[in-house]
Amino acid sequence: MTQPPHDEPSAAGPEELREQVEQTRTELGQTVEALAAKADVKARTQEKAAEVKEQVATKTGELKVQAALKAGELKAKAADLAQQAQDSLPDPVKDTASRAAEQARTKAVQAGRLWEEKAPEPVRQKTARGARAARDNRNVLLAAAGVAAVVWLACRRKG
């Protein structure tokens, strides 16, 4: 072992010497534990993995919130654009579009019935998924249809 530095007085008696030995043992035990913790690569790796996992979970939550906010903004913007497009159409065009939409609905119902009778089951399932997606994105589709109608009318008037 090492000798005490010359400027420190050595123990005055056996009891004080025992206390110094016990304190040295305690310090040595703590040092050994600290070295063992640094040498335990598996535990350190697990701690780092848990830390990174927590950071990823936090960042994922933040990104989900940001995505939801952005989606809400885009949905509102699409609705505004659809309303602007609809407001800019003259009444005769709106009436014509309304009649065309009603005719399209009637034809769609007829085609649906025919489809149910004739189409194989796997094809019907895929078509149902597509229709569900169209219903879920109705505002976007309506806005696109409105824009297409305005463009068509503008091209028609020019020509």
First-residue to last-residue Cα separation = 104 Å
> Helix fraction?
over 70%
What integer is the average pLDDT?
83
Beta-strand content estimate? under 5%
Structural class: mainly alpha
Shape: elongated
Major sheet characteristics: none
Number of strands: 0
State the helix count.
5
Question: What's the alpha carbon Rg, rounded to whole Å?
Answer: 38 Å
Uncertain stretches:
none
Q: Return the string of H and E elements.
A: HHHHH
Describe this structure in words.
The protein has 159 residues and is mostly helical. The chain is built from five helices and no strands. The chain has helices at residues 14-39, 41-88, 91-118, 121-136, 138-158. α2 packs across α5 (138-158). The mean pLDDT is 83.
State the main characteristics.
5 helices, elongated, mainly alpha, single chain, 159 residues
What does the secondary structure layout of this molecule look like, with pairings?
Elements: H1 14-39, H2 41-88, H3 91-118, H4 121-136, H5 138-158
